[in-house]
Amino acid sequence: MARRLSYSARYEHPTEKVYSALSSREFWDDQMVEFRKLTPQSDVDKFVVDENGVDIVLVQTLPKSDLPAIASAVIKKDMIITRKEFLGPYNPEKTEGTYSAGIPAGPGNVSGVQELFPTETGCTLRRTTEVKVYVPFVNGKLEQLILVNLVDLFRGEAEFTADWIAKNS
After folding, report:
1. Is 57 helix (H, G, I), strand (E, B) or coil?
2. pLDDT digit string, tens, across residues 102-120
């Protein structure tokens, strides 16, 4: 059974500033610099901004030695994560998109929807995630571990985004 989680990053910035950051190559390159402090191989593999929106692919490699014991029992070598982010064309009322993450020959998947919308104090980027692991007996534990780590990731990315906008506006 898949597990779900919804996470909302709240910004004091208007939607157009957050969307502008998320559609900036410099933003993603700077974020990869930060990721490299934890994961030495973190790169933007694809970056397209056009009339359809923002389409990004990130590739990160986590060394097997850095994986939690339960994950390293399932993943037999370094874990290569391919993350896809998509946001549709900017809409001041609500910009919708999707995201996913996968591991080649991995035991499950992460996918979700995201929406950027205005609030009284700025805006919110809400991500609703579904995690599914196909390993009997440990699937629930792995799904929960992934969700906990996603909350930490989303929180860190929200802080980075807010700081980046403040420095680059």
Report:
1. strand
2. 887 677 889 999 999 999 9
**Domains: count for the chain:** 1
The residue length of the chain stands at 169
What are the residues facing 62 on neighbouring strands? 79
pLDDT, position 130: 94
> Residue 49 pairs with which residues in a beta bridge?
54
Give residue 124's identity as a one-letter amino acid code.
Answer: T
Structure tokens, 153:
């990731």
Residue 169 has pLDDT above 90, yes or no: no
Query: What is the mean predicted confidence (pLDDT) over 36-47?
Result: 91
Which domain, by its residues, includes 104? 3-168
Paired sense of beta strands 108-119 and 95-102, if any? antiparallel
The domain spanning residue 32 has which CATH number?
A: 3.30.530.20
CA contacts within 13 A on the Cβ side of 42: 14
Instruction: Report the sign of the C-alpha dihedral through residues 22, 26, 32, 36, in that order.
Output: negative
Strand, helix or coil for residue 88: coil
Q: For position 74, what pLDDT does the model report? A: 65
Whether the predicted model's global pTM rises above the 0.70 cut: yes
Beta carbons of 122 and 19 less than 8 angstroms apart:
no
